[in-house]
Design a protein that fits this description.
Layout lengths: L2 H10 L5 E6 L4 E5 L1 H6 L4 H4 L4 H7 L3 H9 L6 E5 L2 E15 L2 E12 H21 L3 E6 L4 E4 L1 H7 L3 H4 L5 H5 L7 H8 L3 E6 L5 E10 L5 E10 H29 L11 H15 L4 E4 L6 H11 L7 E5 L5 H9 E2 L12 E2 L1 H4 L4 E5 L6 H11 L18 E6 L3 H7 L4 H7 L2 E4 L10 H16 L4 E2 L3 H7 L5 H15 L4 E2 L6 H4 L3 H6 L1 H4 L1 H20 L2 H8 L3 H10 L11
Parallel strand pairs: 11-16, 11-17, 12-15, 15-16, 18-19
Antiparallel strand pairs: 1-2, 1-5, 3-4, 4-5, 6-7, 6-10, 8-9, 9-10, 13-14
Length: 580
Amino acid sequence: MDKQQQAALAMWESDLVALGACCGSDWIITEGNASLARLLETARDRMIGRSLRELLAARDLERAFVVLQSRGENSPSFFQKEDSLFVLQWQWDEERKTGSGGERLFSLLQLDRSWLQASNAAALRELNALFDSIHDGIWVIDSRGITVRVNKAVEKMTGLSSRELIGRHVTAPMKEGKYSSCVTLRALRDRAPVTMFDDYANGKRFLNTSVPVFDDAGGVWRVIGYIRDMSMLEELQARLTKLERANCLYKHRLQRLEEKDFSDFAGSGPTLRHLLHDLSKVARSDAPALILGETGTGKTIAARAVHKASPHRDGPFMLINCGAIPASLLESELFGYEKGAFTGAQKTGKVGLLDAARGGTVFFDEIGDLPLDMQGKLLHVLDGQPFTRIGGVKPRHLQSRVLAATNKSLDRMVREGSFREDLYYRLHVLTITLPPLRERTEDIPDLIGEFLRIANGKNSTRKIFAPDVFPCFSQYSWPGNVRELRATVEYLVAMAENDIIAVADLPERIRAPFAPREAAVADRRGLPTLVAEFERNLVARALAETGSTWKAAQKLKISQSTVVRKAMRYRIGTTAVVHS
């Protein structure tokens, strides 16, 4: 006998499983072990030749036989009688031939309650541990509304013990004032999930989502309520909101610290905020920076602000107006000269502006007006090469931060050959473009307020603007930008008759900026009036844009005395501009 046969024989004689063999349509038992005889409550030799169906019927297990016949081979049948669970299974054995064909081999297993309890104990412990470890509360009621189970989270959250809840109708504690509503009962009644807030006697509020569970017949078998402590979520939300506010506050304070040296810029619009952020980054660098922008946008103010915010703040800020210094004096002004260097030189010599800016910032305003020969000398210095004073031999080096500004298109000047390409790229390391006032009209009210305060202080007045004036300021294009706005405010403070400056007090260019309107009334005003008004607007605009009667005269290609005379004739506020 081989090992497989020995194993089969051992299984057959085992008391663990009841085994038998049947043949024919009546399932006549041909063989059976002692365990099968005990389950069928008969002697082993007396069950041979009898029908399995009859023996099962004698034990009130005939329905198991009916199920067995209807199931396929190797399909186990489970059925319960009293405190035992029976498992019946069969299969064909073609090798065991009989007169009617192959035999059926079957097995029958009986599991009593003690065995079932022992086998399910571990799984039950695991289920209980999982149920009680869930952070949210779980409340279960049956189809009658009776509480069948709550987890420990419910007890902790509500302050109610399981003994107060289990076995009682879910409305009973509510009538005692323990909570305000029965969400689980509503889900039972509506046969659908329900989410509501519950208020409990301990002062807490919970969010209850109750979900019905249906049986095979479609009836509600259980309702499971999932309870969440909203006070904890509200506390977390409050803490998060507090942290977000603190973060915004710190961010705002940090931004203000970064922009503390840019207080000369009035306004709070996004365009200006972005500009100040860029200026603060330029201030932290030591590389040359080029400030571009239309006339009157505040390039000099930006350069001073960069200097104040830079590591060179304790050094001097030296402004060099490349367009205001005559070309013949530019070299001596920049580099200085030794005593006796040329006829008319000071006896003690003179320190050049580049030397005077040592440890600070040197700012080349209107760099586009620098003559070509001086551009080459400046490039030599910016590249780190030494320079000497006129008439001197001692080499000197530039030891200051370099800023430059212009309202001209250096790109175009490079293409035209009027500006050195190598100097352009030397200055073009960092570039800031100041936006024109028409691109940040949201800052006009703040600018007006600041200029009005200054103008009232100068004129010892207390004038204010009427509300309908501000739309006129906002729609005007401001070709002279902030400088023109400041000059206009000073003009209005000086010239307006009343303390409230009205639209009628505004210059015509601001009150009526659209040409079609002027054309529409041309025939009524007459040519002399139109010519005078046109001339007045030209002079007023030139004064506002340049801030100087001398520069306005250059712009209009007339003499300075003519500008002054016409300003007096047309009552243009000459007190608002500089006569130099």
